[in-house]
Specification:
This protein is of the alpha+beta class and about 575 residues long. It has four domains: about 1-210, Arp2/3 complex 21 kDa subunit ARPC3; about 230-330, PAS domain (Beta-Lactamase, 2-Layer Sandwich), CATH 3.30.450.20; about 335-410, Orthogonal Bundle (Helix Hairpins); about 415-560, Heat Shock Protein 90, CATH 3.30.565.10. It has helices at about 1-15, 15-30, 35-60, 75-85, 85-105, 110-115, 120-135, 135-160, 170-225, 245-255, 260-265, 270-275, 280-290, 330-380, 385-410, 420-440, 455-475, 505-510, 525-535; strands spanning about 65, 70, 230-235, 240-245, 295-300, 305-315, 320-330, 415-420, 440-445, 455, 480-490, 490-495, 540-545, 550-560. The strands form four sheets. The protein has a five-stranded antiparallel sheet, with helices on both faces. Helix 2 (about 15-30) packs antiparallel against helix 3 and helix 4 packs across helix 7 (about 120-135). The longest helix is centred in the middle third of the chain and has 58 residues, at about 170-225. It starts with a helix and ends in a 10-residue tail after the last strand. The structure holds adenosine-5'-diphosphate and magnesium ion. Adenosine-5'-diphosphate binds near residues 470 and 551.
Length: about 575
């Protein structure tokens, strides 16, 4: 009975690492697989401490069963420490054990080698590396083997030193066997506890990593959503907002400037949109949640046009829905552009027709001119003067028609090295004719020297003509149109100045928009075409206007890099 009691006490002490290790380990949360230095160290330190404590107490309470069999279960803790720990930890544990043994046990020669299991230490320490890499079962086998051998050696030694006078007692042998078995069982228990602690830690690590990855992905997704130029809303099955992107928030803020995302989340979409222009989307979303089908449609809200697409969010490939995603795209601008493009097409058709008709006018004019020539020859010389005037006017009309044709013809993008001055000179008769009709005058202020530039003659003519016509149309009688050229750093500037009423700042912003016109007969295309032509020439157009005094349109053409200036 006493023997059993003592065995139990030793077992309890020997098992102390099984309680100590997980307790401290879970507090500190270290994980040896992680390469973080301090965490790794704290794992080893906890192991070392719990094993040391166990060895110390085991040795303190050690006794001899029946005065022969040494009852001291320090081996499981010692071997666990050697196998799981660093070499340094193993050596410390071994040294401590040996010192204690020497202190409390009278030296027995060979007993020192066998009782302490010293003969096994080198082997245990050497197999530590392989042990750590092995699976749980391999670990169990290795540890059990060492414990079996170690415990057997110390127990059998006591039988060897058995005084010959004593008879071999069956109970003693039985307790000897129990002694060995108990040590192996304690070792197994410690191993299982440590392994499950490590497993738990590993699992926790995985969970942490997974959740970290999840948050990263969620963040990425939110950033992607925010970067999208369309409004995106996620709803749950009840129609409550789960998430919105920045585009929607900005849109919503036009009505509620103080709104923040967190405040929107969790609210019912219907209530959130109530009173807003886009209230209608709440109803659409509800329908989608009810019918569980994707819908997309164009919705006109007042002046604005929206393209919306609402689709249910499904769980995997099942039919089970748990919310909906709404995408709202404001396509007002796109729609306007589409209508404008239609207008341009119609207008270009009209232009082509006009060009065709003008072309047809030239033929009868040529006939008229031919007969006039004939009549002039047959008439008395006193009438020559009149014939010349008529024919000059016919020639001028023909010139204007030619210029118009050159403008109306489809524009090519071919550019040639041109002198801007040449183009202005070519165009000036046409401009003078126009100005004369209106009683206005034209002044040319041309720079003495101008480099040649890669220009498309016809297109630049159109720009100058459009700007000049606008200037003339803006001015009254006696107005003066000035065409000026200047050299600027890296290019050439053309300035078209009038003495008209000027343009108010509010209108200046819209000037280059297609179809912006203040004229009853205007098309509003002139400046838009100018802009597109100038952009095609890598140029810039800008306007300066002084209300009541006049307007200047400035066109800057930049010389392409590596371009050598030509002559004036
Ligand atoms: P359109 O001449 O057919 O109206 P444009 O695109 O050429 O179309 O011009 C757009 C508008 O810009 C004109 O209707 C006019 O109101 C204004 N505008 C253009 N040039 C001038 C100018 N020199 N002075 C005052 N207003 C101008
Ligand atoms: Mg115009």
């Amino acid at each position: 009975m006493v023997a059993v009691k003592e065995i139990l006490l030793q077992v309890l002490i020997a098992c102390s690492p099984a309680f100590l290790f997980p307790l401290i380990f879970e507090r500190c949360r270290p994980y040896p697989v992680q390469n973080a230095g301090p965490e790794r160290n704290s794992y080893y330190n906890i192991l070392l401490c719990s094993c040391l404590i166990s060895i110390l107490i085991c040795s303190t309470f050690s006794t001899y069963l029946f005065g022969i069999i040494p009852l001291n279960y320090f081996l499981p803790s010692l071997f666990i420490g050697m196998l799981y720990g660093r070499l340094r930890d193993g050596l410390i544990l071994a040294a401590v054990q040996l010192i204690i043994y020497i202190l409390i046990t009278p030296f027995k020669g060979i007993g020192f080698l066998l009782d302490t299991g010293l003969v096994l230490y080198p082997m245990v320490l050497l197999s530590s590396g392989r042990f750590k890499r092995g699976g749980r079962q391999a670990k169990l086998i290795t540890l059990s083997f060492f414990l079996l051998v170690g415990q057997y050696l110390s127990t059998s030694l006591s039988f060897l030193t058995w005084p010959l006078s004593h008879k071999m007692d069956l109970t003693v042998i039985l307790f000897g066997i129990v002694n060995i078995a108990v040590a192996v069982v304690i070792g197994g228990l410690l191993l299982v506890v440590i392994e499950s602690s490590l497993d738990k830690e590993r699992l926790q690590m995985q969970v942490t990593q997974l959740s970290r990855r999840y948050f990263r992905e969620a963040e990425k997704l939110q950033q992607m959503m925010d970067a999208a130029p369309v409004s995106i809303l996620l709803l749950d099955q009840q129609g409550r907002i789960v998430s919105v992107n920045d585009t929607f928030l900005n849109f919503y803020r036009t009505e509620h400037p103080e709104a923040v995302k967190e405040e929107l989340v969790g609210r019912m979409l219907n209530e959130t949109l109530k009173g807003l222009d886009i209230e209608i989307f709440g109803a659409r979303a509800e329908r989608t949640l009810r019918n569980r089908e994707t819908t997309s449609e164009l919705v006109q809200v007042g002046e604005r046009m929206f393209y919306t697409s609402t689709s249910p969010i499904k769980r995997g490939h099942t039919d089970e829905t748990f919310g909906a995603v709404i995408i709202i795209q404001d396509i007002t601008e796109l729609e306007t552009l589409r209508t404008e493009l239609g207008n341009v097409e119609r207008l270009s058709l009209v232009g082509q027709m006009a060009a065709g008709i003008t072309h047809e006018i030239r033929n009868p004019m040529a006939v008229v001119r031919g007969f006039l020539q004939l009549m002039k020859e047959k008439s008395p010389p006193s009438l020559d003067h009149y014939y010349r005037i008529v024919m000059d006017e016919l020639d001028r009309a023909n010139g204007i028609i030619n210029d118009f044709l050159s403008l109306a013809q489809s524009r090519s993008v071919n550019k040639e090295e041109c002198q801007l001055h040449d183009i202005i000179h070519e165009l000036s008769p046409l401009l003078w004719a126009d100005a004369n009709l209106r009683g206005q005058s034209i002044e040319l202020k041309l720079a003495p020297y101008l480099p040649t530039l890669p220009l498309n003659n016809k297109e630049i003519k159109q720009v100058i003509l459009n700007l000049s016509r606008n200037a003339m149309e803006a001015m009254e009688d006696k107005g003066q149109l000035t065409l000026e050229t200047r050299n600027i750093p890296g290019g050439v500037e053309l300035r078209v100045t009038d003495t008209g009423p000027g343009i108010p700042p509010a209108k200046q912003e819209k000037l280059f928009q297609p179809f912006f016109t203040t004229k009853a007969q205007g098309t509003g295309l002139g400046l838009a075409l100018c802009l597109s032509i100038i952009e095609r020439h890598n140029g810039k157009i800008s306007v300066e206007s002084d209300e009541g005094r006049g307007t200047t349109f400035s066109v800057k053409f930049m010389k392409p890099l590596g371009h050598n200036a030509g002559d004036a």
